[in-house]
Sequence to fold (337 residues):
Amino acid sequence: MQVRELLRREARRVELDPRGEPVLRGEFLAMGLEATARDAVLAAGFKVVRAADEGEALGIRIVVLRDTRRRDAGRAMQALRAAAPGAEFAYQHLYLPAGPAVPARAASPSAPPPMLRVGLVDGGVAASAVRGMRVERLGCDAREIAEPHGTAVAARLAAGARGTLYAADLWCGDRVGRATLGLVEALGWMARERVPVVNVSLVGPDNPVLARAVRAMVERGHVIVAAVGNDGPAAPPLYPAAYAGVVGVSAVDAKLRVLPEAGSGPQVDFSAPGVVGARMRGTSFAAPVVARAAALLMREPSPQLARDVQRALAARAKDLGAPGRDARYGEGLIAAD
Fold:
């Protein structure tokens, strides 16, 4: 539904790749594009828009290309790979929220609030929903452009805590948003700020540029927690949740039954409550429960500590479904505190 609506409203800016995934029309990313390959790409009808600095913090050199011949996404990609087979090319995929949302209210804790230092890559966050947290912003010139999904996820993540929320806004009020490069930039910002745990309640396809950024984060000891998506148990895995080292989260209802629309497979590491009231439902709202639990155990990124935290979460999880780890619940339930 999200993709169809996006295509209907933004057909000039958005198209589908050969697998039916939404991408920015006519724009591509390149890694390992040396001088000879660049000349070949130019001769094939592409122009270099810019050398992107979004991946610099993670050690990734990216070039943004545009197709001057206005080919469809698949044919343009074929032309790029034929012109420069030694380079690596990617679409500018769009990553969409893993669940609808309504604006959320700040939690009112009854116990002394814990301290958190945690990151969020999503839409804009209303500061009023995370009272007690200082909000550091990336995007939109650091302005608050609140959006329901980002605000609802942030409220689940903060849940009355104090500390700092690093919030990267990929949309800034625009329906299309920043696509792959925006997500990479957000992860690079989290790396520079040494944010130990980052929640990503967004889903999309595998992308080599995003894969490299995620791998760099995991190797540096950051914990990335991501929603597995709401395309159903038979759907192919969604990313970034399905990348190695990412903590993928499914969702359960109030009776601890996995949501029928939740993704399933080896990418599911944990499950958490994903139904909030009558209008918030999905893995988007389960992921921040697990991210919060991890952030309470980490103050700085560390490869060893990241492994320890994931083991601690597995030991704490309540086994649901088939005994032991399974494709629907993962290691089990992490309850909201």
